[in-house]
Amino acid sequence: MERIYLDHAATSPMHPQAAEEMLPFFTEKFGNPSSTHHFGREARAGLDEAREAIARAVGASYNEIIFTGGGTEADNLAIAGFARENRYKGKHVITVITEHHGVLNACSQLEQEGFEVSYLSVSEEGRVSLEQIEQELREDTILVSVMTANNETGTLQPVNEIGALLKEHQAAFHTDAVQALGKCPIDVNDMNVDLLACSAHKFNGPNGTGFLYARKGVELAPILFGGEQERKRRAGTENTAGAAGMKKALEISLTHMEERAELYLTYRNRLKEILSEAGINYYVNGDEKYSLPNVLNLSFPKANVEQLLMNLDLEGIAVSSGSACTAGSVKPSHVLIAMHGENDRSKAAVRFSFGYGNTLDQIEKAGRAVIKVLDRMKVSK
Length: 381
Prior knowledge:
Elements: E1 4-5, H1 16-22, H2 24-27, H3 38-58, E2 65-68, H4 71-85, E3 92-96, H5 101-112, E4 116-120, H6 130-136, E5 141-145, H7 159-166, E6 172-176, H8 188-191, E7 195-199, E8 210-214, H9 229-232, H10 240-255, H11 257-277, E9 283-285, E10 295-299, H12 305-314, E11 317-318, E12 324-326, E13 329-331, H13 334-340, H14 344-347, E14 349-353, H15 360-376
Parallel strand pairs: 1-11, 3-4, 3-5, 5-6, 6-7
Antiparallel strand pairs: 2-8, 7-8, 9-10, 10-14, 12-13
Helix pairs in contact: 1-10, 3-10, 4-5, 11-15
């Protein structure tokens, strides 16, 4: 049986060229990049090359890139690190209720430390309005955090407009761009962001590797304590191999970004077409106009999502749901509840996300598998 992976928004397979780029740093150039001898200098050269290339890819300068252990750490360093270092300017933070938990839980921690956090609502399409942010801004607002693209629905937020709004305000602008980088254009200057978090495993790089862009002049309190790596902003020996793999994966993603976007839109449309032709009742969750091309979140009303996912896996189709099984009960996604309330639509959502290695034939097989499973489950059309 062919197994078809349609969960690239969760993690993506590493590109062979990225894996190849990493190998020398495991075997030959294995030195600690902080060491001054030959082996250390070789590792440092690889780290410097990766930092320079990644900075260039997002419109940043070399010293504005901080290597991290992934997107969650980058979000935490941006939010907690900035708020703690700049609390003398104010203690008010603004974010959105559909953010990734790496952002939401960092904000929750700040609340325990005496900060006030405003959580903004979203439309049925999952977008926050510029007017909401403008209304919530105060003199003591020091940070606004709005993700570039939602990890569950693919909905794009108006980050450029938010960045422009905040140019005349003291508040720093942070965006979680973990899902977006490699899928849509990212330029920190066009976006007017001060802090931007990314993770390599979302664009065919290694897991456990990411970076935070921090604009020059933005001060952060460290959240890890140890050595003076990353210009005293992130303690711990850098993952040189991971940085090298991330650099290569990002180069490949950006080189093929436009053609892949067109391909993934074809996949989206074909999957919906197959389901519609079979008379399947479904809803598209998210904003179809402002969305990542590779994420398609569909609700199948009256379907038991756990049973649906299990049966699709038995058919060889790997997809995911925004729901989490806790003690035998399904808890709907906080993103979909924010968009549609706690109802059948929120409880029966499946995320299909496309990426490197997928083919149109696989998408068609997945569509037919969904029809077969729903029929077996006796879900009414």
